[in-house]
Amino acid sequence: MSVIAEEVDPGEFVNARVTPRGSLENLSQAEMAQLLDRGQGGLYPLFRRCALAVLNSGSQSDDPTELFEKYRDFEIKIVAQSWGVRLEMKSAPAVAFVDGQMIRGVKEHLYAVLRDIVYIANEIVESGRFDLTSPASITNAVFCILRNAGVLDARGRPDLIVCWGGHSISREEYDYTKLVGYELGLRGLNVCTGCGPGAMKGPMKGATIGHSKQRIHDGRYIGLTEPGIVAAESPNPIVNHLVIMPDIEKRLEAFARLGHGILIFPGGVGTAEEILYLLGILLDPANAEQPAPLVLTGPAVSAAWFEQIHEFIGLTLGKAAQARYRIIIDDPAEVARVMVAGMETVRRHRKQTGDSYNFNWTLKIPRDFQLPFEVSHESVAGLALHLDQPAHVRAANLRRVFSAIVAGNVKEHGIRQIEAKGPFEIHGDPRLMRPLDALLASFIAQRRMKISGQYRPVYRVVG
């Protein structure tokens, strides 16, 4: 891929022309028209936002409005050539370049964005092949997106560990995630995260050293994101397989079906959403026999965080949910050993059931966890949050609460809603609301909600 860059304002903006090589070299005229269409039905606004987020990799801000304001003059144009397509950028972030050349990893991420946006629009949404209200069809769509992105390893044994955790974590917590990643890498395990900073970057960084020591040259560092979150959590530079999923629900399903084991590090509302999503589907009776190695882990300084999460899960979902995971404090090697043992359990189960190693087809994900939750003040206030319902249904609605708070914290459309109408109001059974309020208050006190600026709550617990 060749790049010609012209510096506009040293340290800030760059104009550049980028030509891909070996990845998405050609686009049809219809695809070109979609990507250049700035109207409501066109793909340009989406492509521009995701491209800007990728070019801004390494930023310490998690405020998308700040990013879009700073680079309000950023433009990206797709130009057809006889041998393929070229991207022309105006006022792009200079951090994506070194000595006039675009950084190779940034180039790969940029074209991953282009690949996924075009594929999802044409093959998933508009083709008519998928009924995106049907659970089976949604799962097929998730599979096809991952297959098109080249992240389904058909030859390998179970070895992919999904790591969840916050982007706003302490230095001690971040260093611990690196130690865990190192132990995973030494044992030949690969890493999949949400692709951003903090607990999403640390395990990958540690795994690269473990892989290097073991002379593993094809380590996989998979990053799964979605358009609403990518601007707040720009892909970290270690990600070598970036996938843009259509929305948070399909992103979560991709994690659940792609990974063979899951580690959860300390985090905030996004991490709580992921925990509730996973526990919710595991509590479904159809998944009672489903092996899912799940460990919550962190350094000794984070022990209180795990105690509070464990207590919250017990009060809201019950002991059955608590039984689905193990908490390991300050022991990276033991975490990795548990994951290695879990890989063998998963391998045997997949072999016995005839399921593939690279995509968990037998896991049942209820429709409530698959359909996108349209965040609004009305939808949040209308959530059914009470104890008189099955635990997995309750988990689905609690997940939506945390999803709404994530939107209000770091997603552009959510931030705009809060600016216009004030905080989301959360109503429900006081026996659920009290532990929920206490957990959220602890996230605020520990500065786990946002990196940028003073945090102002985007929610109010009123029930």
CATH level-3 fold name of the largest domain: Rossmann fold
Instruction: Report on the biggest sheet.
Output: 7 strands, parallel
CATH architectural label of the largest domain: 3-Layer(aba) Sandwich
Overall outline? globular
Helix content: 40-55%
Number of domains: 2
- Can you count the beta strands? 15
Report low-confidence residues grouped into runs of 5 or more.
Answer: 1-10
Strand content: 15-25%
What is the typical, i.e. mean, pLDDT? 90
What Rg, in angstroms, do the CA atoms define?
A: 21 Å
- Which strand order does the major sheet show? 10-9-8-7-11-12-13
Reading off the top of the CATH hierarchy, the class of the largest domain is best stated as Alpha Beta
Structural class: alpha/beta
Instruction: Note the total helix count.
Output: 18
Q: What structural keywords apply?
A:
alpha/beta; 2 domains; 4-stranded antiparallel β-sheet; globular; disordered N terminus; single chain; MCP/YpsA-like; 18 helices; Rossmann fold; 463 residues; 7-stranded parallel β-sheet
Question: Could you explain how this protein is built, in words?
Answer:
- By secondary structure, the chain is of the alpha/beta class.
- It folds into two domains: 2-129, MCP/YpsA-like; 153-463, Rossmann fold (3-Layer(aba) Sandwich).
- Helices cover 46% and strands 16% of the residues.
- The protein contains 18 helices and 15 strands.
- It has helices at residues 29-36, 44-55, 64-70, 104-125, 135-148, 171-186, 202-213, 227-230, 248-258, 269-282, 303-316, 319-322, 332-353, 367-370, 377-381, 391-410, 412-421, 430-445, and strands at residues 2-9, 13-19, 75-81, 84-93, 97-98, 101-102, 160-164, 190-193, 221-225, 241-244, 261-264, 294-298, 326-329, 424-426, 459-461.
- The chain has a seven-stranded parallel sheet with strand order 10-9-8-7-11-12-13, with helices on both faces. Strands 1-2-4-3 form a four-stranded antiparallel sheet. A two-stranded antiparallel sheet has the order 5-6.
- Helix 6 (171-186) links the parallel strand 7 (160-164) and strand 8 (190-193).
